[in-house]
Amino acid sequence: MLTTLDLSGRWTWSVDADGPTPMPAQAELLVGRAVEAAVPGAVHADLHAAGLIAEPLADRNEDEVAWVSRTDWRLSRSFGPVADAERVDLVVDGVDTVASISVNGRPVGSTRNMHRTYRFDVSPDVAATNEVDVHFTSPYTEAEHWERELGARPSAYPQPFAFIRKMASSFGWDWGPTLPSCGLWRGVRVETWSTARIAAVRPLVDVFEDTGILTAHIEVERAASGMTRALHLEVEIAGQAVHAEVQPGETEATVVVAVPDVQRWSPRGLGEAHLYAVGISLWSAGEHLDTRSTRVGFRTVSIERSPDADGTPFVVTVNGLPLFVKGVNWIPESVFPGTVPAERVRERLTQAAEANVNLIRVWGGGVYESEEFYAACDELGLLVWQDFLFACAAYPEEEPIRSEVLAEARDNIVRLSAHPSLAVWNGNNENLWMRLDKNWAEQPGGELTWGERYYLEWLPDLLRDLDPSRPYTEGSPWSGGWEHDPNDVDHQTFHSWDAWNEDDFAVYRDSSPRFVSEFGWQGAATWRTLRDAVTDPELRVDSENLRHHQKAIDGHVKLARNLARHLPVTEDFDRWHLQTQWMQVEAVRTGVLHWRAGWPRTAGTIVWQLNDLWPVVSWSAIDGAGRCKPLYFALREMYAPRVVTIEPNGEGLEFCAVNDDDATWRTTVQITRRRVDGRFIAAESVPLSVPPRAVGRVALARAISEADDPEAEFIVASADDRRTIWHFAAPSRARTGTLPPDLTVTVVDGGLDLAVSSTDLLRDVLVQPDRIHPAATVDRGFTTVLPGETAVFRVRAPEPLDPAAARAAFVVTSLRDIIGPE
């Protein structure tokens, strides 16, 4: 029977003085010194824990610790005797990245790909006491070598990440620091076995009427004594056990199991996420050799891409039901992914599910995520759009890059095949688009190979062989072929970045893409997150340390330009901080609600981005410390199963009711035009019936849609418990009322309840709980309080809170504070 000795835990770092990389002066000071290491982990995190480098994510320390990435390192540990067996394998689930591995002084293998699992036969090498050494070469040494050998190519960023199979964004992105690290970033173990073992299981599913079909493709590896023996496989699911014989010398078997009256796995909003346990056992002559356990979910998934009168749609369909994708883009949770605990990943995904998200896109500049990530998505009913790991660069198709790419793709297609949440494979992020949009062909290196064969030939070939059960799209964005621009608004997927980079978020209403797989707007991290990351005595907009935590090209300039279109210019940090968060919410909400109202022409939005990997001014809804920005709460509202919005329709305004439920929405729409002091000017009441998964529309009467005094009037439209507000004037010109709001603070179990009311319109009230206590949370974001209403903000914390703290400056704010003194 296969046995396992876990080698995770305590290891030791030391500078590898014999490595190929010229040694930085800072590294010379550590030669001969042992530094405690954690596996899984990363060298930067361990050096910081040992007090040898400053916190890499604070201030501008990223620059001060750059030498760590240009140093060769050695990671070592010992282990005792292992079980007596025919084979002893050292299994490393993730090596970051270029390394040579030895056991008891003998080289046993080498690695050059962060995204693969490695298995080394160390049977001749193990003894009663054993030493494992992993010698890491600087990622720059590897990447720059192959850049010279193969030729530099166009890229969105100056770092050579396209020449090494490593997390691209660790070399820096427009939201992330440049901190390429090294280490064993996933588990490591010794496995002992005899005769044979289960090498891989690739369980694919299909559904015919009420019967689920499991097709389990199983690979076995034989030791010397197992070469001439017959092997027996058993696959068990839903109380059934199906057996198969593997004849001597054979290494593969396919077992098909029919599951009658199957309960289908459905994503959020379409049903329950039913999962089935699968057990696979391997036997020989009555001896139990190995066992694998996994789970599957029975569902069908496809993408409707048949051309129509408007172009080419992109409609994700699960179990025969088309759905509007309410998605978020996912980046790695840390620039040092080996340091991310599984519970943090689950927490972040649970937050996404609670925000009514139904799809997570694992973006191509990151990593193939952990088993815990996909298992959580399975359980939460979150669809996964999985990029192959290419982003924003021309990638060489020559060796040794090509073989590594295909090996990692095969590895991960097989590894992830069991997960019902995995719904879409995507070839790359923006590479097909940038080839044309950035005129890469005319740039230095543009005549060289650039990755087209990966996306249009080799990856789809692999998927046809290994996973024909899921749809594939060649890129994001991609129009379906070179006859259209890759980012054509009328054909398949679209990235909407001109609004952020050049225009204003109002232009979202000028387009109706078929599927928006990326768009977003920047907003600052929460106040406490920035306060912890920037050690200046006070936070200032022009602080060099703060600007270091803004990685977008001209990011602060773009923020300032966009803010000036809507709000008064300010140099006060607290007000600027609020303004960026307010504008982020307004921008994303404008896009999402407009595009949801455009269903079924527009079939999905994937907001950039859910999470962050450090404290930064970025496009995220949850910042790098795990605190929810106001955008998070806005996502929860705009992605709700039923939403309402007021949209311009060319002739005036119309009320749109979006119904993603299975039941018809029968309601009465109440629409009023009011003044900021609460007075009613006009009103109408309209019955409305919206079929399942449809949009209902009501044209607003001119008495409602035309203002007498735009700066002092607004429209409120509601259907049941859903409400939307239309403001005629920009915030900088709108009158917000003159009476101060009333705040009542009540101490309750677990925290404080803050009740806010006003006799005037109180627009966009926000509570910043981290200004009360670093661990405090709140249950809502920006909330408009109508005259005579009361809104209660529930602030909770792990310890008692001082009610007086709730009355401190910028804890409870509104648009009046965002605009500032008149």
Give a concise summary.
The mean pLDDT is 96. This protein has 822 residues and is of the alpha+beta class.
Structure description:
The protein has 822 residues and is of the alpha+beta class. Helix content is 20%, strand content 33%. The strands form twelve sheets. The chain has an eight-stranded parallel β-sheet with strand order 29-28-27-26-25-32-31-30. A six-stranded antiparallel β-sheet has the order 3-2-4-10-7-8, covered by helices on one side. The protein is globular. The termini are far apart.
Helix and strand arrangement:
Blueprint: E1 3-6, E2 9-15, H1 25-28, E3 35-39, H2 43-49, H3 61-64, H4 66-69, E4 73-79, E5 87-92, E6 95-96, E7 98-103, E8 106-112, E9 118-121, E10 130-136, H5 139-150, E11 171-173, E12 176-178, E13 183-184, E14 188-193, E15 196-208, E16 211-222, E17 231-237, E18 240-246, E19 252-259, E20 276-284, E21 287-296, E22 301-304, E23 315-318, E24 321-322, E25 325-330, H6 342-354, E26 359-362, H7 371-380, E27 383-387, H8 401-416, E28 422-426, H9 431-437, H10 452-466, E29 472-473, E30 493-496, H11 498-501, E31 515-519, H12 527-533, H13 544-548, H14 555-564, H15 573-597, E32 604-607, H16 630-638, E33 642-648, E34 653-659, E35 665-675, E36 680-690, E37 694-699, H17 702-705, E38 713-719, E39 722-727, E40 742-748, E41 751-757, E42 762-767, E43 777-778, E44 783-785, E45 790-796, E46 812-813, H18 815-819
Parallel strand pairs: 25-26, 25-32, 26-27, 27-28, 28-29, 30-31, 31-32
Antiparallel strand pairs: 1-14, 2-3, 2-4, 4-10, 5-9, 5-14, 6-13, 7-8, 7-10, 11-12, 15-16, 16-19, 17-18, 17-20, 20-21, 22-23, 23-24, 33-34, 34-37, 35-36, 35-38, 38-39, 40-41, 41-45, 42-44, 42-46, 43-45
